[in-house]
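Here is a typical sample entry:
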Amino acid sequence: MKNILVPVGTSPNTISHLQYAVDFAEAFGAKLYVVHVYKVFSKAGTILNLDHIIERESKDFLDDLISKIDTKNVEVITKALKGKIVDVLELVSKLANIDLILIEPRTNSANDEVFLGKTSGKIIKQMNGPATLIVPENYTFKPIKNMLMAMKSAIIKKENALDPVKYFREKFKTKISLLLVKTPFHNEGDFDVNDELEALVDDVLKTENATTFQGVLRHYESHNPDMLCVVRRKRGFFAKKWEKNVILKRDFSSDIPVLVLSGLK
């Protein structure tokens, strides 16, 4: 893992999140790209050049944030960029060869009932790019020892789809438990684990539930993981819950990091 992208907003958790990102990047020897995306609404007759003003303020905002954390030996690159959040992050991911995106659950929302705010939910649901790691608020970095990897289909067609999981395995010797969940949408061959995945996991458990989410709830406590890994797909782990970008804690919440793979097919 060489390049990590961290979009930041104005949440009270931002400093804590950035420190986690630095500690995470240090463990992997990776470079950190910290990005603040802003949007300018133009009005007819406007005299001042709002673009330059907001860009400067956004850059000052980023510099102030970085000054409040211990960057250690990590190379931190800050960028203030104008545009739509998903479009900008997709472009940066391509240009900087980003391996992983770190997001906080709520970049702007102050509502305590919200798990994923509008912006974070939009990144997870709409973005086409690398895997994303959702880091709980005020979470302190620690090596990942046990990962619960849940999916309803083990069919893998996308090249390098499992690379994010391999990073943790190689760096921390992470024990990975694969939970295969048979849902009403189960197809023949969904539980056929190929050689690449079989070599990556330590054990395989099969269960039958209405959704992958329910399967995780059923087996979460018995595995006691310090990271949950799920797959983003059209009918994936959060399909119904992420029809809207905002996700409330009553629908889903996690006190451990959640690694969201961008897809396997």
